[in-house]
Amino acid sequence: MSTTAEPGYAPGYTTTTHHEFRTAHNSAAYLLLTLEELCATTTNPTLLDVGCGSGTITASFATLFPNLHITALDLSPEILTRAKAHADKLGVSDRITFKSANVYDLVASLGDDTKFDVVHAHQMLVHLSDPVKAMQQLLSVAKFGGWLACRDICMRTFTFYPDTEILQSWTRLQLATHNASGGSSNAGASLGAWAVQAGASRKKVKLGMGSWMYASPEERKVWGGTFRDRIISGSMRTTALELGIASEAEMDEMAKEWERWMANEDACSGSLHGELLVQK
Ligand SMILES: C[S@@+](CC[C@H](N)C(=O)[O-])C[C@H]1O[C@@H](n2cnc3c(N)ncnc32)[C@H](O)[C@@H]1O
Q1: How far, in Å, are 37, 80, 268 from residue 152 at the CA level?
Q2: CB within 6 Å of ligand 1 — which residues?
Q3: Which of ligand 1's atoms lies nearest the C-alpha of 6?
Q4: Nearest C-alpha neighbor of 124 from the set 220, 194, 63, 70
């Protein structure tokens, strides 16, 4: 099995605090009914979480479903250490196996005979240059009758209050730099098409849309801080400068706008996510 070359996870792992807000309820609600039925009717149900990152959704699945056994994979051993620490803190790490692997090499990494009742990926495909090839691997490791569950963002749907020109420019810059780094900013709306291209039966593809809204002071601090930091020193700034699509001064102004957004008690930010369920 050959590995498709990837630049890695373009945003990097220094600003992942915003990932740690994620739980099964706020980021995988579309899958909970399926998991409830599975866990009520199956002995030793299994879930594979690919691109688990800091693992807060993973650990949340384990907390909600005490008989669920989870394998959590990520490209980065560094982030897996954080995910394991989080699972330890919640007392669920005895039911989670953490492993570093590349989604493109999933079948080879897990072994031909290893299949799961549910294969889950949240906000991973959006970062990949060949999401269809990745989905082929995800589908291959689901049991016959098992499920593929993917949720991914539609980056163009970021919306804000206050709806300022500077935040709109920031959104356009985020789209351009994300796509230039090899990702697919329209991943959320593409999930169904990618699943069919990866070999799923169209009749079995179920699509939905879910949302996030960040409005509390704590949420504003974490999200505004992440977006400010990405534009001050992250790969978004470097890529924008390489592409010549924003100046240092324009990006410094965007960082200040995020500071103003964080301090504004009325401010909020929302986004939409495509949700895919396929029964194999
Ligand atoms: C936006 S984070 C999402 C993490 C987690 N699923 C969540 O929603 O909190 C994307 C994760 O995908 C991982 N990733 C990116 N490319 C990958 C690949 N080719 N194989 C496996 N994991 C990958 C990154 O290391 C990163 O941790």
Answers
A1: 24, 20, 20
A2: 6, 9, 19, 22, 51-54, 57, 74-76, 79, 102-104, 122-124, 127
A3: 19
A4: 194
**Ligand 1 centroid from CA 231, angstroms:** 20
Lowest mean pLDDT among 8-17, 44-53, 123-132, 192-201: 8-17
How do residues 12-51 score in pLDDT, each as one tens digit? 655 556 667 899 999 999 999 999 999 999 999 999 999 9
pLDDT in tens, 41-67: 999 999 999 999 999 999 999 999 999
Find, among 64, 35, 33, 60, the residue nearest to 47 by Cα: 35
Find the 165 Cα to ligand 1 centroid distance in Å. Answer: 31
Which residues are CB-contacts of 231 (< 8 A; sequence separation ≥ 6)?
170, 173, 237, 251, 254, 255, 258
Domains within the chain, CATH numbers bracketed: 17-279 (3.40.50.150)
